[in-house]
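pls read this protein.

:::
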Amino acid sequence: MEKILKHAEGFVYLVSLLGVTGAREEVDKTASELVLRVRKKTELPLCIGFGISKEKHVEQLKLNSGVDGVIVGSAIVNIIGENLGDKEKMLFGLKNFARKMKDATKKKVEVLNV
């Protein structure tokens, strides 16, 4: 990890879990633990991805680790896939989802020192 952080620029992309990506109900607690471990070793912003698909995931990660950002993939692909025949509905769904996720990153929470 130290070698990667030594060469990192901009931000550090953390993977929240091992295995296959995709939408999940809960974020594994090890994701917050990873953010806290890496936070001790770098001042770069930390962003986490894999399995992040709901506002509550963002809120949990922010509360438990103070993560700087999240990276979402599968949830966005699902919105697109579900609305291939209706561009207007697709764009509305994407805009609504992006707004909710962005708002969740801005909620003021007190970070737990674990």
Residues 2-106 form a domain with the TIM Barrel fold (CATH 3.20.20.70).
